[in-house]
What we know:
Layout: H1 12-27, E1 39-40, E2 44-47, E3 50-53, E4 58-61, E5 71-72, H2 78-93
Amino acid sequence: MSEEQFEMYNDPFKMLILLAQMAADEQGIPLDYANVPNIDNETFSMTNGKFVYKKDQTVIEWYEFLGRDITSNHDLTRTQYNKMFVDCMSSLYNS
Length: 95
């Protein structure tokens, strides 16, 4: 299997937006970058200001609104980010 198949976006921030939008859609609310919808399943959790990928404890945080001062506790490659986010997206449909 080719690594490129997970190449969805070249920026983890875009994937966070997509996950937040999917969570908002699932909850039937509009996405508000200053108040990201809470979601928690076996794969990941996302609250306003923090995303946690539970399988390897990757934590991505932002300040006040999604997109501002984003930091991560792991230095992941683009491929690793993409695999992680594909797993998270899949978990939204399997929950």
